[in-house]
Design a protein that fits this description.
rod-shaped, 128 residues
């Protein structure tokens, strides 16, 4: 009977030792699973941060491209306005030039008429 009790105690000790080993193994597995889950969470966060950074950078680049395009259009508009103003100025100058030519021709015509009238007046005065 003592031997049976001794055998039972020994069997119980072995069972306890085996259970302790199993518990340690399970705790290790649990820690590894928690570590893996932590790594997966870190990876998800890193991916989300990277995607957010890409979206932010793309938005900034789009905005910069729009601003650059707007500046280029504004600059081109200024050049076209300057060209248009110079064309208008040239047209106005040609109008003034043509008007002056016509006025000069009219003055020359009036001068010729006056010269003829003066000549006739001088002849009339000389005959009187």
């Amino acid at each position: 009977m003592e031997e049976e009790i001794h055998n039972l105690k020994q069997a119980h000790a072995q069972q306890m030792e085996e259970m302790t080993k199993q518990m340690m193994y399970m705790e290790k597995q649990s820690q590894q699973a928690a570590y893996a889950a932590s790594l997966e969470e870190q990876l998800r966060n890193a991916k989300a941060n990277a995607e957010a950074a890409v979206r932010e950078t793309a938005a900034r680049l789009d905005e910069a491209a729009r601003a650059s395009q707007a500046q280029a259009l504004k600059s081109q508009r200024k050049r076209l306005d300057a060209v248009y103003a110079s064309v208008l100025a040239g047209t106005a100058w040609n109008t003034v030039k043509e008007s002056c030519k016509a006025e000069l021709e009219a003055i020359h015509g009036d001068r010729e008429v006056l010269a003829v009238l003066l000549s006739e007046l001088q002849q009339l005065t000389a005959t009187l």
